[in-house]
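[job 0412] stage=fold_complex status=start
inputs:
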Amino acid sequence: DQQVKQNSPSLSVQEGRISILNCDYTNSMFDYFLWYKKYPAEGPTFLISISSIKDKNEDGRFTVFLNKSAKHLSLHIVPSQPGDSAVYFCAASESGNTPLVFGKGTRLSVIA
Amino acid sequence: GAVVSQHPSWVICKSGTSVKIECRSLDFQATTMFWYRQFPKQSLMLMATSNEGSKATYEQGVEKDKFLINHASLTLSTLTVTSAHPEDSSFYICSARVQAKGANVLTFGAGSRLTVL
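[job 0412] stage=fold_complex status=done
writing structure:
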């Protein structure tokens, strides 16, 4: 049973437009959520996080939205750039200290 | 910033041999490190939690005798895949918790791709 789900395996967006990556979770005990970006043959790099006491966190072009009632979070990238092309993983944990549970990832392609 | 270094980045070995992967925290001490495995087009799956000076904690379904973890110092954890078989071919990634952007996050190494012939 997958506790963190990224239902879109891939997404294509034009340069300059907004990219929206979605993530759903089933474990109501999760209260800390993170997005990671991964290039081929490299380890994931941390992008942005949000705790359950917030519904939005912004860092430059990246914004994460959390809807606790729907158990849904999303990552918005605006404007999208070709260098943003990568696989994006959503991850969640309980209380920020338990091991992260990852989704399967969404491959974002930003087309120039 | 905090860096997790992993070595080797890729390795090819014959079936039945053992392979050791090292994970180092370069500018910080890590009492706990996490080992993940990723199969193609799959999620990162936690294999085990490596604890400095004590036994590792393995996730359900991960054979502790096959995937030996040693965390002998505050900056080094090793994963040894013993008697490797082709089905062990995967991308292995280690990580440690650091403070980044005001949050407690996992920082990952670059990963090690293991191919067992």
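[job 0412] summary: The CA atoms of residues 44 and 92 of chain B lie 9 Å apart.
[job 0412] exit 0
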